[in-house]
Design a protein that fits this description.
- The protein has a ten-stranded antiparallel beta barrel. Strands 11-12 form a two-stranded antiparallel ribbon.
- The protein has strands spanning 21-31, 34-46, 53-62, 68-81, 87-94, 98-107, 110-120, 127-137, 140-149, 155-166, 171-172, 178-179.
- By secondary structure, the chain is mainly β.
- It is globular and about 45 Å long.
Length: 183
């Protein structure tokens, strides 16, 4: 599926243009301290013409029939592609009291990141590091995450496959004008 580059998108964001839009799908979450479960997820990725993408992800646990059981993870943040065209940063905040800064490399269909810094509130669970890999495969967003938390070394934690459910909604650009939707 070809990717259209929105002319109002900042040129630094071009390698991440495939992410822009709304995504939905399912995956599996598990860890030594978490029973393996299926989950559903929605991700919205937008831009306003400045050199970053805005990211919001919501997830919920699914019961054995695939119905939503209860809310799970939420994260919001920013993808910051760097001027060299290969480096990218991802800043994420979680309502559990954790803030992450990832650094990594991007290409037109793949992003690989590792935590460069993790901050926790005094009441957040112990969380030390993570590794994330995102890919654009046959029109879908596929991603995996390994993490080190609660005294365990870095290991598999979550993976999902999401399909694009709609292009990005019209955004207000930094200048206040309306930007067209992208695919």
């Amino acid at each position: 599926m070809p990717i259209e580059i929105d002319p109002t998108m900042h040129p630094q964001c071009a390698p991440l243009a495939w992410m822009i839009g709304s995504w939905a799908g399912a995956g599996v979450v598990g860890y030594p301290s978490i029973e393996s479960r299926n989950f559903g997820q929605e991700i919205d990725v937008t831009h306003d013409g400045r050199p970053f993408l805005m990211w919001t992800s919501r997830a919920w646990l699914l019961d054995e029939q695939g119905n939503q059981e209860r809310a799970a993870a939420v994260e919001t943040g920013f993808w910051r592609p760097q001027p060299d065209g290969t480096e990218v940063e991802l800043l994420l905040a979680h309502p559990t009291g954790i803030v992450e800064l990832y650094a990594g490399e991007m290409s037109p269909a793949k992003v690989e990141l590792r935590t460069d810094g993790v901050m926790r509130s005094p009441h957040a669970k112990e969380y030390a590091a993570a590794h994330r890999l995102y890919g654009y495969v046959k029109g879908n967003m596929m991603w995996v995450m390994d993490m080190a938390a609660t005294g365990h070394p870095i290991q598999s934690h979550v993976s999902a496959e999401l399909r694009r459910v709609c292009p990005a909604p019209r955004q207000r650009s930094a200048s206040g004008t309306s930007a067209p939707a992208t695919r």
